[in-house]
Design brief:
Blueprint lengths: L15 H9 L6 E2 L11 H12 L12 H14 L6 E5 L1 H13 L5 E6 L4 H8 L3 E6 L8 H7 L4 E7 L11 H13 L3 E5 L22 E5 L12 E5 L1 H12 L7 H10 L5 H18 L13 E2 L13 H10 L2 E2 L1 E2 L10 E4 L4 H16 L1
Parallel strand pairs: 1-10, 3-4, 3-5, 5-6, 6-7
Antiparallel strand pairs: 2-8, 7-8, 9-12, 11-12
Helix pairs in contact: 2-9, 4-5, 4-8, 10-12
């Protein structure tokens, strides 16, 4: 290792998802069901608002906490959802930026953070950058949010519980009862509760629920990247107790500085754009991919996000690892993600159904042939 490289960088590897993206660029006409971003473009009213901001000179730094029209629109929404709570809001550089600020604001070296396995790839890496200790709770085979399992993992070093619903990579959503149990558990033990709600708009069955309803100290992280296809715009937001928000902002001043100002003006417009049609299309994609594969693969039906996380089928003798299975899929031109990127297990693989209907049909054909071969 180069002598200038910091020790903290050796505690995690580069994202395996990025390696698949690099591979995709080398394949000719692959069926790409690996990318975790919507297949539709940013709606025109949002583009036009950002263009207007650029042409009218709104190109400088914004206030670190974000432009006031966006914060005010979010504040009104938050106050309606969580009336009477001490809940401030600021604009982060994407939800990834919000997650990093939350870790840096609250995690000391040696602090333990509990989250479900499988998990979003960034969680353990961010924690280890801060010197935190990831505590992974095995949620196989159904990927439910089980408060009893979480409570059993709590120690005097536990600082935070990190919840993601709807979840990446499984698409599974926690029920209101499950979220309430974990929210009350965090309050009982005086543990920080962070809720990653970036897929809150992609909710197909029932109504979206947040643990912040049951625990007013919950730190909520959300944004516009997935809901409005603005992944490259880097506009997220964080809301929670005002003292925690002030501390996160202090760190943002010396790191990200602010989210890009023109993109924030686009986000103001985004709050007025209805997503019903897109969400309905994704519900149909969810139904198609699940119903086309559930007879051959063990799948927990996703209620949100745009992922399914099937188990590698067994031939009755020796079961392939997910990595081996994905290699076979890639040989046939299908790009999916092996589960060991999101988990300590290598038994499942992630499919993103944020793709065209034609791509999904081709992908299903390959996956069915792999299961039957």
């Amino acid at each position: 290792m180069h002598p200038w490289i910091a020790d903290r960088t050796t505690t995690f590897d580069s994202s395996g998802i990025r390696k698949v993206f690099d591979l995709a660029a080398k394949l000719k006409d692959p069926v790409n069901l690996s990318i975790g971003q919507p297949d539709f473009d940013v709606p025109d009213p949002i583009k036009n608002a950002a263009i207007e901001a650029i042409t009218s000179g709104k190109n400088a730094y914004s206030p670190t906490q974000g432009i006031e029209p966006l914060r005010q629109a979010l504040r009104q929404q938050i106050e309606q959802t969580y009336p009477g709570q001490d809940r401030d809001v600021f604009i982060s550089s994407g939800t990834s930026g919000g997650l990093m600020l939350a870790m840096m604001a609250m995690i000391n070296p040696g602090d333990e953070v509990i989250f479900l396995d499988p998990y979003f790839v960034m969680y353990p890496a961010l924690l280890q950058m801060c010197g935190g200790v990831p505590i992974r709770i095995n949620s196989y085979p159904d990927f439910r949010l089980d408060a009893a399992k979480i409570e059993a993992a709590i120690t005097p070093k536990t600082k935070m519980i990190l919840v993601n619903s709807p979840a990446n990579p499984t698409g599974v959503t926690a029920t209101p009862a499950e979220l309430e149990a974990v929210a009350k558990l965090a309050k009982k033990h005086n543990i920080a509760l962070v809720s990653d709600e970036i897929y809150s708009q992609f909710f197909y069955d029932g109504d979206f629920a947040s643990p912040a309803t049951y625990n007013d100290q919950t730190i909520v992280i959300d944004g516009f990247s997935k809901s409005h296809a603005m992944t490259g715009w880097r506009v997220g937001y964080v809301h929670g107790p005002s003292e925690i928000m002030r501390t996160m902002l202090k760190i943002q001043q010396y790191s990200f500085v602010c989210s890009p100002q023109p993109a924030q003006w686009g986000a103001v417009r985004a709050m007025e754009v209805r997503l019903d049609e897109h969400i309905e299309h994704y519900r149909q994609k969810r139904d198609f991919i699940y119903e086309s594969l559930c007879d051959l693969y063990e799948i927990a039906k996703p209620n949100g996000a745009f992922y399914v996380f099937p188990k590698v089928p067994s031939d009755g003798a020796q079961t392939m690892t997910a990595t081996q299975f994905v290699e076979k899929a890639i040989e046939r031109g299908l790009l999916i993600i092996p589960g060991n990127i999101f988990s300590r297990q290598d038994t499942h693989f992630r499919i993103s159904f944020a793709a065209s209907d034609e791509q999904l049909k081709r992908g299903v054909e390959i996956l069915r042939s792999l299961a039957l071969s």
